[in-house]
Amino acid sequence: MNIEAPSTLQELAMKSLLRHEALAISVLQKLPKAFFPSLFKEAFKSRHMKILTAMVAEWPFSSLPVGALMQEPDVVILQAVLDGVDMLLKQNVHLRRSKLRVLDLRKMCRVFWNVWPGIECGESSTGTLSEEEKENDLPRYALRQRLKVVTDFFLNVALDKEQAYLLQWAQQQQDAVQLCCQKVIICDAPEQVFRMVLSTFKPHYIEELCLSIHWTPRELICLAHCFVQMRNLHKLHLARISVHINNATYTFEDREKHITRFLAQISKLKYLQELIVNDSYFSSEHMKHLFRCLKTPLVSLSIKVHKFPSSDLKHLSQCQGLFQLKHLNLFSASLFNLCPTALQFLLKSVADTLQTLQISNCCIRDSEHGTLLPALSQCFQLTSVYFYDTAISMSALKDLLQTWPIYAS
Asked: How many domains, the chain?
């Protein structure tokens, strides 16, 4: 028979405070710091909105990663949290005396919540974090400024209630707080929605951008012009770029020209480190143009194609942005049987730095793996080779394992 452990004094005190809302709010300034995270999570779970609002205004730590607790959209919780920020901003005490520097609305489980008892996303065995460790866990910009609101945006056809409320609040408070959006996913969102977000959350804070869009040529170019402002963009995922043309307004030549202009803007992303391309919507000429435009040294490159002509691979192997490449992922059914020699040239071009190679959805015949092994043998930094959904004979696999007995998989 399971016997439930008795409640601790802290748990009993917390339950008492939640039953007496006015008392809980009145004692927040005298409450030990270590009590705040547990009380905040219980107030969050039991939806005591007034207590949540008051706790945000009195939060004794530099960061409040409340987004880790908001796994599902909840505009009521969001309103209570932002009301706490409003209360903090309206206080007569100068913000320099406030501990809170970052309100993090990103939906991820951060280290902060793991170090306190009763956390659903995992316990920490190291005890509580020191103030210095908590400071180090903050983004660098959080240490330079006082109060920042950090979030991500997944933009679909229309803003959901939580996004709309956050955007409205941000527009009202953008002179009082620093608004930072680090990750943006655009999935069939109208261009005006994207522009509305970027008019409030400045694009130079964006570090990751994923595009799955079907826009007109004019809208595509408007987005491309925003690349100039995304000076901290590290990861770009071109999941789907489809251009809608109206024969009365745009010709096929206009479509091709605008896609080329869009791809050319990628060369202005000076800090780009990771590029993921699904070229189902790009022609071979578009891919060649993209490879010519890649001048910033990439760390990771992933390309998913149905057909990979040898001419495309040739242009890729000559790309200026590959001389520091560490991770290469190629997904193509025609990768080997159409251009084994071109693939060999590509591997030689990244041999000095390549650490991981992933080949997916390919068929490697015995007559072709002989081309692969000599090129791989020159990749002295290579530690891992992965084959996913790839047909490979036992003979070819044995040869590969003899070259890398531990890391090939």
From this structure: 1
